Amino acid sequence: MSLVTSTIGQGLLWGILALGLYLSFRILNFPDMTVEGTFPFGAAVCVAALVRGVDPAIATLLSFIAGLGTGLVTGLLYTKGKIPILLAGILTMTGVYSVNLRILGKANVGLLNHATLLNAKFLTKLPANFPTIVVGLIFAICIVILLALFLNTDLGQAFIATGDNEKMARSLGINTDNMKILGLMVSNGLIGLSGGLLAQNGGYADVNMGIGTMVIGLAAIIIGEVVYGKNLSLSARLVAVVVGSILYRLVLLLVLQLGFSTNDFKLISAIILALCLMLPLFQKKFHIHKIWKRGIEKP
Amino acid sequence: MSTLLDLKNITTTVNAGTKEEKKILKNINLQLADGDFVTLLGTNGAGKSTLLNIINGSLFPSEGHVILDKEDLTAWSEVKRAKYISQVFQDPKMGTAPRMTVAENLLLATKRGKRRGLRMRGLDKHLAEFKEITAKLPNGLSERLDTFVGNLSGGQRQTLSFLMATIKKPKLLLLDEHTAALDPNTSHQLLELTNQVVQKDHLTCVMITHQLKDALKYGNRIVILNNGKIVLDVRGKEKNKLTEKAILQYFTD
Predict the structure, then answer these.
(1) Residue A164, exposed/middle/buried by CB under 10 A (0-12, 13-18, 19+)?
(2) How many CA atoms lie less than 13 Å away from A207 in the CB half-sphere?
(3) What is the pLDDT of residues A191-220, one digit of tens each?
(4) How many angstroms separate the Cα of A203 from the Cα of each of A117, A135, A288?
């Protein structure tokens, strides 16, 4: 049971990363590799601040701001520097690795006995793992609501239009460069925040913790879409992303219970994502939908 | 009638300074009066699309000035010009956002050229208005306001593009072969709609077409480009006297 609750808590915190990735990957249609630099950057900034005695709330906020920064760099490289988005992201990701080493001073820094958001006073009375769930829920709910509101403003609609049809957006007077920079900043801000929260949850920051985060975020998005279908309102899709993130964690837990080691996680992550991405193909080929329907119609 | 658009000595050169250097437009001077409906003709490569791009700001001229309503727009970006100029592209996919609904697309268009801030979009307030406007159109868009545009037919998408370009009255409307990708019936419908809206709203409009019949039928003025130069520019009675055969004389390479 404790494994399941801890998994759900982690799923919520990873869900924040997935929400960030949703903005760049699904709305802007960008393969933004900055993620893998932003995530440890958020973690490093947060841990470095906590170790120096900074208030956990402020340290968490700093991890968000750190993410805004990497998003801005990638956005400027892409829009003003005319560097292809994939390469711009890789450049930022690579550069920020050194910055992380500078901030942490070494490859891995622990949070032993330092105050974090997750051991705040009002949470200590809760049973084990529930602090993570409570904090994860509060953040996930607030972010989903704020994003849903934002996407329904004039600016949010202009942002969506930019990702959907850039040429049209420009012809309607939307400054698409600014929209892309804004999107990359908010996206990476959330990813940095997720890094900061997961570092507090895990009790450490590691310069290599970004490897594979792109796949984790994408898996959450795709699993959410597979489970809920694609004909959802935008706000419902944001919820689906968070649910997808929790489901993905549960699948990993299941795999672990089958006897695989944590060392196999990245391979398993990649395989799960690949299978989910190929699902539409399988459905066509093996008529899964028909079998499904027939099962319902003729019990 | 007062001059709305004034193109002064427009020249565009591509690959300047290399062996491939080529002048697409050669010292073009063209004045559009307020309310002019110009059909722009010419062979492929004559410079029609380039001229339209110079006007809408997606290309900048090597020399010359673009003046709209006494304001020099030459250095303005495409985004900034959107305040005054709207366009319908040839490809129905170009003018609409596929993953947004018909109503959402229309809402985007009502704010063309305006500041877009953190105010809620207020889609509900506009729905009745959108329903009323689309109900007047031929292909059933009014029943599909909540449909994602990607699920519409090419004809419906292009009608929507046209509506988006004119829902907030532009100073200048640019049509780049906007019916070329449609079947003959739909194409005819959209051209009739175009003519009707341009007359009713007293729009100033430049329409590129390859259909000589359409060029003769619609608009009050014909301009023919050939090899980067204006070779014919007639209006009113003179235009009405033109025949397809007469026009073809101006199409040389």
Answers:
(1) buried
(2) 16
(3) 999 999 999 999 999 999 999 999 999 999
(4) 11, 15, 44
Residue pair A213/A43 in contact by the 8 Å Cβ criterion? no
The radius of gyration of chain B from alpha carbons, rounded to an integer in Å, stands at 19
Task: Write out the two tokens for B208.
Answer: 């590129």
Token code pair at residue B67: 């003046």
Contacts of B116 in chain A (CB under 8 A): 154-155, 157-158, 174
Contacts of B107 in chain A (CB under 8 A): 157
Residues of B in contact with A168 (CB under 8 A): 94-97
- Could you give the domains of chain B? 3-248 (3.40.50.300)
User: Distance (Å, rounded) from C-alpha B236 to C-alpha B253?
Assistant: 27
Decide: A60 and A117 in contact? Cβ < 8 Å: yes
pLDDT, mean over chain A: 92
Q: Which of B80, B89, B121 sits opposite A152 (nearest CB)?
A: B121
Q: Which residue has the higher pLDDT, A79 or B139?
A: A79
Amino acid at A37: G
Interface of A with B in 168-227 (CB under 8 A): 168-176
Q: What is the ipTM of this complex?
A: 0.92
Q: Is A28 helix (H, G, I), strand (E, B) or coil?
A: coil
**CA-closest candidate to residue B86, choices B29, B3, B167, B156:** B167
- Phi and psi of A19, rounded to 5°? -65, -40
pLDDT in tens, B30-48: 999 999 999 999 988 889 9
Place of tokens 């942490």: A104
Q: Distance between terminal CA atoms of chain B?
A: 35
Paired with A287 in beta bridges are none
Q: Which two tokens stand for residue A179?
A: 């929209």
| Residue count (chain B) | 253
Locate A88 and state its tokens. Answer: 């711009």
Q: Do B98 and A176 touch (CB under 8 A)?
A: no
> Which of A43-52, A279-288, B24-33, B112-121 is predicted with the least confidence, judged by mean pLDDT?
A279-288
Domain that holds residue A258: 2-297
User: Which residue type, as a one-letter code, is found at position B21?
Assistant: E
- Those residues whose C-beta lies under 8 Å from the C-beta of residue B103, and which sit 6 or more positions away, are B123, B126, B127, B130, B145, B146
- For residue B104, what are its two tokens? 């959402």
> Distance between CA B31 and CA B230 in Å, rounded?
12
Return d(Cα A275, Cα A257) in angstroms, integer. Answer: 20
Domain count, chain A: 1
The candidate with the shortest Cα–Cα distance to A24, out of A35, A33, A32, is: A32
User: Quick one: residue A70, left, alpha or beta (phi over 0 = left, psi -120 to 50 = alpha)?
Assistant: alpha
> How many A×B Cβ pairs under 8 Å?
81
Q: Is B94 on the interface with A (CB under 8 A)?
A: yes
Q: Whose structure tokens read 């597979």?
A: A226
Contact in structure between A133 and A8 (CB atoms under 8 Å): yes
What count of residues does chain A have? Answer: 299
Neighbours of B28 (CB within 10 A): 23
Question: Where residue A17 sits, what CATH number does that domain have?
Answer: 1.10.3470
